[in-house]
Amino acid sequence: MINLAIEVGKTTTPEAVMFWFLAPLAIVAALGMLLSKKAVHSAILLAWVMITLAIFYIAQDALFLGIVQVVVYTGAVMMLFLFILMLVGVDSADSLKETIPGLRPIAITAAVGFGGLMVSLLGRATLGSDMVGLTDANAAGNVPALAQLLFSTYVWPFEVVSALLITAALGAMVLAHNHRLVARPTQRELSIKRFRGESLGSAAGLPNPGVYALHNAVDVPALLPDGTASEASVSAMLKARGDVIDSKPFQLIELANEEGEK
Amino acid sequence: MTSNYLVYLIALPLLGSALLLFAGRKADKWGHLLGTAMSGGAFVIGLYEFSQMLGRSTEQRAVTQKLFSWISVGSFQVDAGLMLDQLSICFVLLITGVGTLIHIYSIAYMSHDLDRRRFFAYLNLFIAAMLLLVLGDSYLNLYVGWEGVGLASYLLIGFWNQKPTYATAAKKAFVANRVGDMGLSLAIMIAFATLGTVSFAGVKEQASQASTGALTAIGIMLLVAATGKSAQFPLQAWLGDAMAGPTPVSALIHAATMVTAGVYLITRSNFIFDAAPTAQLCVAIIGAITLLFGAIIGTAKDDIKKALAASTMSQIGYMVLGAGLGPAGYAFAIMHLLTHGFFKAGMFLGAGSVMHGMDDEVNMRRYGGLSKFMPITFATFGLGYLAIIGVPPFAGFYSKDKIIEVAFNAGGIKGITLGCAALLGAAITAFYMTRVVILTFAGSKRWDDKAHPHESPVLMWLPMALLAIGSVASGFIFTRGNSLKNWLAPVVEQSPVHEGELLKPEVVSVLALVLVLLGVGLAVVKYLRKEIPLVAPTNVSIFTRIARRDLLQDDFNEAVFMKTGQKLTKALVVTDKSIIDGAVRGVAKLVQGSGSALRTTQTGFVRSYAMWILIGAIGLVAAIWVVTL
Amino acid sequence: MNAANYLYVSALLFTIGAIGVVVRRNAIVVFMCVELMLNAANLAFVTFARINGNLDGQVMAFFTMVVAACEVVVGLAIIVTIYRSRRSASVDDASLLKR
């Protein structure tokens, strides 16, 4: 695909074909991102727009940036977005109804005016007709040429940006860090709590689930010596899901009979 | 000539004042003795300087002492320097001498007052400030003393400030004095601006070259200062109320010394007034008006201290008139000042003695027949009385008659007018002083049975007796061989004597005596022969009523200055509230209103802010669009 | 083919992203729209580099990517923190600054 893009970029007509094929798709995808109710759909559409842009970069002799675009944006950044979406709730759908009165018409009017002005400005400018092209600049290859610039003219901004990256990483760690409100209880404290609790019934630990060797699964409550099922022996989560099985059928028959005789 | 002891004249009482004020209650037992000792010490130094001065030839008599360089700004150089010349020594001896006597008197008079120590501290402060006033060698040094005596006067008038009326009286004196002080500071500024110096010697030197206009301006401003401090028309209203202070204060500050500072100032500035005839004429006219003004008020007062205060105002009017008559009158103004210092201080102390014996009663209508109970007080007061009305050979006869004579001989209509005013004043003086003496010491007793009039202790009558001696002898001493006139000659310019141009001295004396006798006779007829009502009769003529209201001086001040000032203040308050505060509040309201209006755009929704950013971006792009069009 | 066509695509994508930032309420989608705007700008950079015949535009696009990566990392961490405390990823819910 990269080679195809390079080939297309070298000749004018193929580039035009590629452009007129991809550009409308990118615009549609961007609009879709804007209009979709589900954030996940927005993220997927945005990823598509970014891949399109990567192709555009490569078509415009920016091979390095095209690769970086794919790796950083569609790879890292979009993955991060999706990760956060999972955290926040992937199923939640936004209501597209406007809550601040008058904001949407103003915003759309303003944005359309902005876009119109930009397009009008670009139309007036004499750009592109006398395009220089990057053939000379990329003579030694795009990556060495960029490196030449980055480590000479732009070395100082480059270093500053590295500091910015580290600061951002630290900042994200600080923000995401969850402060404990109270100290973690020690083993001694837990032990005291267990023995000084309401009763000594659970002092030796909660009963294990299962009925003898007949059915030792976690969804079967243990039977107490008097034959009743112990609620404490199964997970509350299983109970909430309704996955607990009655343990009566697994009682030892002799014991049941003895009980019946009595 | 220089002397190293001048500073101690001021330092001793100043030290006493500081010690008494800072030592607190611990000094209550001995504070009055320390104060008296400090005042007495200053008197001894004054006597020493006087004896030294007598031993020198006329040209060598003035001594100076430079203390330190006070102000040194560019061409403006003022030293804190002292100067003791023939004029100053008169004042130094009067201030410290009479001052010490009054300190002694106060020991007894204030013995029942819990704050006697504070009283003596203030008295010492006054002595120090007054000495600085007369010893300063420049107008600026004089100004410090001038303000100092104003402060001491304020503190002492309001000494019993627990009574609101007394505190108000102190405030009134202070405010009236401020008006005069403003005149003095303006005079100093004009002097510096036009003459380039403020020292007496420097101004005297420069005065001959200065323009008459500048000198007249300085003179008028000095006159304003003198009217404030010496209770002259039109700033006279405070003196009557100043009697709120303890009687020794009235005797020392408001009769003998401080109120005569204006006369000192004019006499000291003789070189200015001699070169500015207009200002000098103003001085004489002010003096003449005040001497009649005070005398008329004196006839209507029933309060013994206020009657004496009115008399003081009138007598200082004589001095100012004398000083306003130029070289011929300076010496007589100072002479009258000195003799007045003796007899008026004596009479005030006598009045204090009477009050002391009558449970602080001041209404003369409730006295009567006290000569039997207070023989010494009656004797000393009587001698002062004879001195003030000008009966020969008592002191007032010599000094006052000379002023009348010089006034008549000033020449032209001016001389006749001023002379007649002075002569009429003498007659009225005789009338009201006789009235005071008759109401107090003669006639039948009119006091309650609760009062037990008695003679004052020796500490009180001794100063009175000494002052009475001065009342008797001082005039004779000063005029014998023109001693005081010759003594002062180097300080005040002498001019060819106008004696006998219009009226001969004998004629003046006879005229004055006849008028005095008329005044005395009228008072005897009016008050000795008739029963005195306990309450002042109300069905009296409009003139009497006006005189009782101090010739409407307070009404005038209230109507013209106080009411106008209040209206101005109210208008300023309204202006402040409506315009200045209005502007401030308007700005605040504008900001507040625009803030509330703009606040509605702050919804707190991030998306609306984002939209504003978008609109801003559109603005930018639109700007580029327009620019590249 | 005229390279300016890429610029038109870039302008349109940028506008769509801007609308999304203002209109959408889900913070994650808003973030995606911001990313779209950054990518649109990158496309313009790359195209300009080609038009002008030097690689500075590509370097700029490279830096933009780095900054965008930083922004995503920190921004998503903030979203997670807010979600943890408010149980909501809507940007309208975090409007406590009003009034």
TrEMBL record, chain C:
Membrane topology: Multi-pass membrane protein
GO terms under cellular component: NADH dehydrogenase complex
Any matching Pfam family: Oxidored_q2
GO molecular function: oxidoreductase activity, acting on NAD(P)H
InterPro entries linked: NADH_UbQ_OxRdtase_chain4L/K (IPR001133), NUOK/Mnh_C1-like (IPR039428)
UniProt main location, coarse: membrane
GO annotation (BP), single: ATP synthesis coupled electron transport
Subcellular localization: Membrane
Membrane-spanning segments: 6-23, 28-49, 61-83
Keyword vocabulary terms for this entry: Membrane, NAD, Translocase, Transmembrane, Transmembrane helix, Transport
Family membership noted in the UniProt record: Belongs to the complex I subunit 4L family.
Protein's name according to its UniProt entry: Unannotated protein
Organism, as annotated: freshwater metagenome
